[in-house]
Amino acid sequence: MRLSGFHVTNQRSRPDYSPATIAIAVYAVLVLVILPASAYARMLGGAAILIAAAAVVAPWISKSSPPAMSMLIVSFAGIAVLVIPNFRAMGGENGPALPIGFLGSQAIALLWATLIRPGRARSLARVSLGDAFRFAMFGAAILSAIASIPIAWMLFHDAARALPFLLVYPAYFLGGFATAVIYWLFRGVAHRAVGPYVIGALGGTCMYTAVAPIVYLSQRQPIPVGEMLEIGIVCGFLVGPPVALSMNDPLPGSSPTARRATSATHQQRRSRA
Fold it and tell me: Comparing C-alpha atoms, which of 253, 220, 269, 266 is closest to residue 132?
């Protein structure tokens, strides 16, 4: 079917488990090669339990319900099982087990995304970079409005200390620009589970990394670039994919033609159901 220059098909894409399978395999290899044998039971056994639980629970999740909450639960469950026990305060040894465990938690999150969102009808509505920028600016404006509430309170009570937090406004818009570019680059795979996962993870990383320096500036501390990137990556990978997975494609606020193309796809799905 063609609609005003946009090609829309009514075929649902088959589940593609290869990205999640590769991520899980890489995680297992890293555990076996880098970590001591004493960690195998927890790191491999814990991952196996999480994978089995995801496979059992996923069919009970309604595909019409927003996936953000279940995605967050799976991500934090992976963190609780594969990451937190490796902190020294929890009896672990820190070191490479922390990033390896985080990789494992995200591999299971990607598997969960594939299980609950195996594939949508592919809509090749060509979302322009301008459409992506407009939606990103709209999102940045909403975040800025929300941030204005605590910032106004801080300015009223301690203006000197609150001044660095005014940088949150350009930071949101800078992160929004980067997120828009990422969406535009990966829009071709947005119909697969790995698409919104990557878009959300990288976009969330850009947003959190752009905002992270403000915290250090407010405390008049040097900006540790490595620590700032770690915070941006962890927060971005935990929060970004659930948000992206809950969004429709093409972007809300995109061109009317793109919206009509997506609407036609939804109508075809209902007529076939």
Answer: 253
221/196: higher pLDDT:
196
Lowest mean pLDDT among 75-89, 111-125, 139-153, 192-206: 111-125
- The answer for residues whose C-beta is within 8 angstroms of residue 71's C-beta and 6 or more apart is 109, 112, 113, 116, 241, 242, 245
Residues 6 or more apart in contact with residue 137 via CB below 8 angstroms:
173, 176
Cα dihedral across residues 75, 182, 10, 259: positive or negative: positive
Rounded CA-CA distance 36/69 in Å is 34
Residue 21 has a pLDDT of 93
Q: How far apart are CA 240 and CA 227, in angstroms?
A: 19
Residue 122 phi, psi dihedral angles, 5° rounding: -75, 120
Q: How far lies 189's CA from each of 13, 122, 182, 250, in Å? A: 11, 9, 12, 12
Give the predicted TM-score (pTM) of the model: 0.73
Q: Could you read off the pLDDT of 234-267 as tens digits, one per residue?
A: 989 998 888 888 765 444 444 444 444 444 444 5
Q: Is 259 exposed, middle or buried (0-12, 13-18, 19+ CB in 10 A)?
A: middle
- What would the two tokens of residue 268 be? 């075809």
User: Which tokens is 248 given?
Assistant: 């429709």
d(CA 36, CA 100): 13
Supply 163's token pair. Answer: 């001044």
Q: Give the whole-number percent of the chain exceeding pLDDT 90.
A: 24
Collapsed DSSP state (helix, strand, coil) of residue 9: strand
- Nearest alpha carbon to residue 127 among 186, 187, 179, 196: 187
- Taking the domains of the chain in order of start, what are their residue ranges? 17-118, 127-253
